[in-house]
Amino acid sequence: QLIYDAHNAEHLLQAAIAQVELSRLSRLPAAVYSSIQARRIARFERSVSATATGVLAVSDEDAEALSNFRADRRIFVIPNGIFTDEYTSSSARQLDLGNHALIFTGKMDYRPNVDAMQWFANAILPRIRARIPDVRLYIVGQKPHASLQALNDPHIAVTGWVEQVQPFLHAGTVYVAPLRMGSGTRLKLLEALASGIAIVATPIAAAGLSSEVHCAMRLAADESAFADAVIDLLNNPSARLEYAERGREIVRETYDWQALAPRLFQAFQELGLTQKSSASGS
Fold first, then answer.
1. Sheet holding 156-160, edge to edge
2. Residue 25: per-residue pLDDT
3. pLDDT recorded at residue 275
4. Three state DSSP letters for 24-64
5. What are phi and psi of 78, to 5 degrees?
6. Is residue 271 within 8 Å of residue 52, measured between CB atoms?
7. What's residue 167's pLDDT?
8. Confidence (pLDDT) at 21
9. How far is CA 113 from CA 60, 97, 180, 226, 233, in A?
10. What fold is seen in the domain 85-255?
């Protein structure tokens, strides 16, 4: 039997990328490419979703989009998860990043991440520096795009590949997620929540996560509101602690694989995919 495990509704991601790219004339070829890809991927997702025995989506939004491709409209929603103990452990090496360190993590040649950091560095960080001059942004992740490498200066550190992201999450002051395109759920936010760092995110970055998670971070849609939210948290240790504690609790209860695995097994049972007992004596 075929089970389609959709980590994204990928056609939505490509459509979102095209929409953002259209805002700049120089990116028009990229916008056209993403528009074409969105249509191609939608055809593939329609075919696979229609013929699969079952479809798994990681968010309600993705499930709604993929349900249009099935006659029974039935999609199982199993969120992405993490092993929270890997991010709450104090065994990771310690870093000293100062009192005003902003953190962003991910694969840095991935278009949504590149766009997020370009937008943040050019439109948001200068607003923050005007109020907090010693703020520093750490862009943490492998294969940084050339446009991100060019951002390296006394206020922006582009690390490239690191052995572990946990030391940066533990040492940072505020985690920023200024994503303007995407689908599915952002594992980077779950990792930050589990690490106990306060978060400022766009609604697009937080899409696919529960309303309880939304209450455990600051959401801001435009550059002015985003900068104000970061400044407020940088200046308010008690607010950072409150968000951190709330986030840790929620991600442990709802997005740890210990909590999610039973939902996955239940979906398999409903699809008639029961576990086979091991042979006697094996």
1. 156-160, 136-140, 101-105, 174-177, 198-201, 218-219
2. 76
3. 60
4. CHHHHHHHHHHHHHHHHHHHHHHHHHHHCCEEEECCHHHHH
5. -125, 105
6. no
7. 94
8. 82
9. 23, 22, 9, 16, 22
10. Rossmann fold (3.40.50)
How many C-beta atoms surround the C-beta of residue 181 within 10 A? Answer: 23
pLDDT of residue 280: 40
Residue 268, token pair as written in the block: 């398999």
45 within 8 A of 68, measured Cβ to Cβ: no
The residue behind tokens 């991010």 is 87
Q: Degrees (nearest 5) of the Cα angle 103, 250, 117?
A: 20
Asked whether the predicted pLDDT for residue 183 surpasses 80, the reply is no
Tell me if 228 sits within 8 A of 128, measured CB to CB: no
pLDDT of residue 129: 98
Q: Is the pLDDT of residue 282 over 60?
A: no
Q: Where are the domains of the chain?
A: 3-77, 85-255
Helix axes 237-254, 187-195, angle to 10 degrees: 120
DSSP per position, 121-181? IIIIHHHHHHH-TT-EEEEE-SS--HHHHTT-BTTEEEEE--S-SHHHHHH-SEEEE--SS
pLDDT in tens, 194-210: 999 999 999 999 998 99
In this predicted structure, what is the pLDDT of residue 23? 77
What are the structure tokens assigned to 261, written together? Answer: 């695995």
276 Cβ contact list (under 8 Å, min separation 6)? none
Q: From residue 43, how far is each of 10, 34, 46, 60, 80 by CA, in Å? A: 11, 14, 5, 21, 24
Cα–Cα distances (Å) from 3 to 6, 33, 81, 100, in that order, read 9, 29, 19, 46
Q: First CA to last CA across the chain, in angstroms?
A: 26
pLDDT band at 22 (very low <50, low <70, confident <90, very high): confident
Q: What is the torsion angle, in degrees rounded to the nearest 10, for the CA atoms of residue 109, residue 164, residue 151 and residue 181?
A: 40
